[in-house]
Amino acid sequence: MARPTFPPDLIRLQNDWIRAYDDLAQRSPADSATVPRRRLLLLSCRLINHPHWSGPAEWRAARTELRRQARTAER
């Protein structure tokens, strides 16, 4: 099976999401999480509504591969 290819802006968006998630996960309980949560929510909405996806089924099928390619491109 051929690996799907993703547009560079979608991979960058996924990388931003990964960094925002990691930032939120590494915060201490004493730190306010409002801003990072809002950022993560915004990025999640942008990922789901990116023009690359033609429908919800394709989104679910390719999500894991997008994460893998984004992590590879980050290095």
Explain this structure:
It is a single chain. Helices cover 71% and strands 0% of the residues. The chain is mainly α. It contains 3 helices and no strands. The protein has helices spanning 8-26, 34-48, 56-74. The chain has a domain at 33-75. The longest helix is centred in the first third of the chain and has 19 residues, at 8-26. The mean pLDDT is 84.
Task: Give a quick summary of the entry.
The chain is an all-alpha fold and 75 residues long. The chain has helices at 8-26, 34-48, 56-74.
Features:
75 residues; mainly alpha
Based on the structure, what is the oligomeric state of the protein chains? single chain
Structural class by secondary-structure content: mainly alpha
Strand content: under 5%
Stretches with pLDDT under 50, minimum 5 residues = none
How would a crystallographer describe the biggest sheet? none
Q: Care to count the β-strands?
A: 0
Shape: elongated
Give the mean pLDDT.
Answer: 84
| Helix content, binned percent | over 70%
What is the string of helix and strand elements? HHH
Number of helices: 3
Radius of gyration: 14 Å
